[in-house]
Design brief:
mainly alpha, two-stranded antiparallel sheet
Amino acid sequence: MDTQNPSAPTRARSRTADKNHPHAGGLVHENTRHTTRFTVIGNHLAQHPELSLVARGLALYLQSLPAGARADIRTLAARFPEGTTRIAAALRELETHGYLRRERVRIPGGRVITRTTSCNQPGRRDAEPDRTRKPARRPTPDQPRRRLPPVPQPGHPAPQLLRIATEVLVTLRRHDPRLLLSATDAEHLAPGVAAWLEREVTPTAVRHALTADLPQEDLRRPAALLAHRLTDRLPPPPPYLAPARPPEIRHPFRNCDGCDRVFRAPAPGRCRDCRGDIREAA
């Protein structure tokens, strides 16, 4: 009989899954080195404990954009399916945690725009403050809120007209979420809308005039913008139309009770001649 080699294995041993993949049940990375078109993002953003996924994804997208690219709410909402409400909320998250700054600046020519700054390392800017920038003015509790510009007033403020005007104002946010007004702002603007309605402008036409060609940047004072438009775009009064003459009253034909002559009268009786003969006889 042939003798067996006790040192030779009876069959080939396979490596266990645990030895091949120490973390077989978890994440496995397959990385390729980028040499062009890439963006470096810190783990402080990717693994932030408080930011939503929408905010983190938006921060990543903003970091990948070139300088000068548009980054307002409407442009971002047109690019992504989340819509203006979720985009605006994500931008506020990034502002709160220092990944975004939005500042109002005046450019040559006098126009005011919103400058958006995407920060890849929050807090670094505060370590060496930019002394060329003026500190932001924050309202104090004793400082009153800036008054809104005056608006046109209707000649005859009917309650029904003011009710329709208020409905027009509170539905503007359906066209643009930035036009969400407080109750105080709506009360201030309602007479201005009523002045338009009094001039025979339909509510739909007023709504279009207030929402057409809105600025792309954020609206810090939407009520002030609406007050300006209500005054600046106020249409002229409608042309005067003289009241129409009342229709001529034509009474039915009657037969005179005295001479049987046919005449027009509101009720049966005598004609004019017969009534005159009676007066003369008396």
